[in-house]
Amino acid sequence: MSDNTERGEAYTEDASPDDSGRNDTPRRGVREWLTDLFSDEPEDLSELMEILREAANRQMFDDEALNIIFGALHVGDMHARDIMIPRSSLVVVREDQEPAELLPIIIESEHSRYPVVGDDVDDIKGILHAKDLLPLVLETDHSKFSMKDCIRKATVIPESKRLNVLLQEFRATRNHMALVVDEYGQISGAVTIEDVLEQIVGDIEDEHDVHDDSGIKQMEPQSFHVKANLPIDDFNEHFDTQFSDEEFDTIGGIVLQAFGHLPERGETVEVETLKFEVLNADSRRLRLLRAGLVAWLFGLGQYGVGASWVYVSIHVYGNAPPPLALFMVALFVAVLALLFVWPLGWCFSRLRTPRGSWFSVFAFVALWLLLDWMSTWLFTGFPWLLPGYAGLDTPIQSLAPLFGVLGTGLFMCLSAAALAAMAVNRRFQLSFFGLALLPWLVGFVLAPVNWVTPEAQYSAALVQGNIDQAVKWQPDQAVPNVRKHLELSADHWDADILVWPEAAITLYPQQAQGLLEDLARQGQATQTDMVAGIPGVEMVGEGQYEFQNLAIGLGRARGRFAKQHLVPFGEYVPLEGLLRGLITFFDLPMSRSSPGRADQPNLQLSFGSAAMAICYEIAYPASMRQRARDAAVLITISNDTWFGASIGPLQHMQIARMRALENGRWLLRATNNGVTAIVAPDGTIQGRLPQFEAGVLRGSIHVMNGETPFKVMGHWPALAYVFGVLSFALLRRWRKSASTTTSPPLAGS
């Protein structure tokens, strides 16, 4: 051995620092490090799976082959207990049974192998092959038959047996069935080689599958195999039952409702006079339902926290007892989660995108954005918790003037989805990290860009009356309410524009005609544009009236604006014939309002028009964009007293800031008890009053010249992304001819 070799061996065996403190451990060079970083070789199973997914995406092999490979990779993680036929579903024969008793059992059950038992199921004697009894069919003399001569040795395995090991044993011993025992040595089920292979290649039709076109197969005089997707009408006709098809279309839906959970194979349930047993479970449908359930649970958390202020409105001001208020909030939250979040999980699973792939990131974001967009109009909409609002006060807010709140939310979700993909796709971690950073970098670059420029400057005064909501609408408080607003405004008529909040005047215009004339004269005398909130009423027929929530122009201002987007229960009552009068919450003041027209003109001020939004409707970005096209300023008046000290008023303020940023206009926000504020076109708050205090906010605003890209394009760029990605996803799935699954059969008796 050479000296060099000897030194090399000593070097590898002793890698500790020498006496001089120098570490002689071999160091990897930069080239090796870069090679590992950009190498395509997988380091673990998850990376290998990602490579396989990418190969399938490139059409190197089809989905069926990919599923088989994945099945083979995952079968080692599964145990016998995961797939075994449960004890209750085993068909066994006794060792003392005669051929005359055995043959009917074998013919009716159509199995190929049967456990042979002694005194009970736990007394296993062996396995009987049906083919070993074939000679008996031709013989008439069965006196020489001996069960012991036909029994083969039974393979017994624990529930914890891994399937890859079991498959090897099946191949080595040429056995096709193993009996499974629990920790106490009792029989808990059985596993066949077919059960194991199905985990790799998918469902293999066996004796449990229903081949009859009718979907019903009689097994015994009082036992049938029925497909879960059998229409209820067909089931009723065959079994002379009266199941209703109003809620479900198939018998599987009725059985699933009876279980109250996603059943597994072997579970039973009784529905009326029938007993149903699940003979097979469809793992794909299970995955879809679970994905939808996870999304719905996320939605419960999202709306349960984000819209928790609804409880204040119902309990404190609707006088509903706490249990009833909690129930109504829970119902409200559950419906919102079902409408705007549950479809995200369900649809994403239906797309069957490779987990952690590039396409899964883009598809997930597209689905999220689609539901956000639907929340702005479906069933009048509830666009309250859009993720784009979280971009305020971050570099991403620079994207709002280009793409609006939906587009900003797109980039927020894209960044979050890319970070999530990093956790499951190590192969492209660096690339996903770059994608996650990209929106922030683009926002940082766009931050100095000014889409609009200031022109003339005007002074503004916003009045915050802080009137107690509990007494505000009482008839004897109408005059004190007005008097308080007049007192607060007395020293501020020198402002170019004076704004009173929503319903600052709690009289109808016909009742307050003298007051309105006085305010108009005062505004003319001081050259002031005044905007005030007031309820409106008009006779639309004999004995019929139309109520509206109004903002009117006084002094130099002209016109009236009727609120278009009404708050459910607060300004109108859905299913009014059923709910009106049940509790105070269904009969709140102004809860009989009618919406204003979508095409009504803006209020006219002395220096231009004002795009109005009354309270909740500031949350509708498309409507505000439409009104802001020719507007010099945005004005929103509100009465957030309904929200109490909850997070509602702060969320409302955040939403108003986004409208100013999207449209590149100054925004004036006057409220009864906060948050009253002046917002600049860049979304920053230039001045605000403390909540729950009476006062007047003074400040300056500018008429802005120019338009933001969002004001011109609206949400079309964001929607183009949504429909482009989802159209590609549907086309991709259609072209790849995704494999279909058969419906799991149910046994009925």
Task: Please tell me about this protein's structure.
The protein is built from 27 helices and 24 strands. It is elongated and about 120 Å long. The relative contact order is 0.09. The longest helix is centred in the middle third of the chain and has 25 residues, at 400-424. The protein is an alpha+beta fold and 749 residues long. Among the domains are: 78-201, CBS-domain (Roll), CATH 3.10.580; 216-281, Uridine Diphospho-n-acetylenolpyruvylglucosamine Reductase, domain 3 (2-Layer Sandwich), CATH 3.30.465.10; 283-343, no CATH class; 453-713, Nitrilase/N-carbamoyl-D-aminoacid amidohydrolase (4-Layer Sandwich), CATH 3.60.110. It is 42% helix and 18% strand. Strand 17 and strand 18 form a beta hairpin.
Number of helical segments with 4 or more residues: 27
Query: Which shape, going by the Cα principal axes?
Result: elongated
Give the strand order of the largest sheet, numbering strands 1, 2, ... along the chain. Answer: 16-15-14-13-12-23
Q: Report the CATH topology name of the domain at 453-713.
A: Nitrilase/N-carbamoyl-D-aminoacid amidohydrolase
Quaternary organisation of the protein chains: single chain
β-strand number: 24
Approximately how much helix is present in the residues? 40-55%
Q: CATH homologous superfamily of the domain at 453-713? A: Carbon-nitrogen hydrolase
**End-to-end separation:** 82 Å
> What ranges have pLDDT less than 50 throughout 5 or more consecutive residues?
1-28, 33-40, 207-211, 282-287, 737-745
Radius of gyration: 36 Å
Coarse structural class: alpha+beta
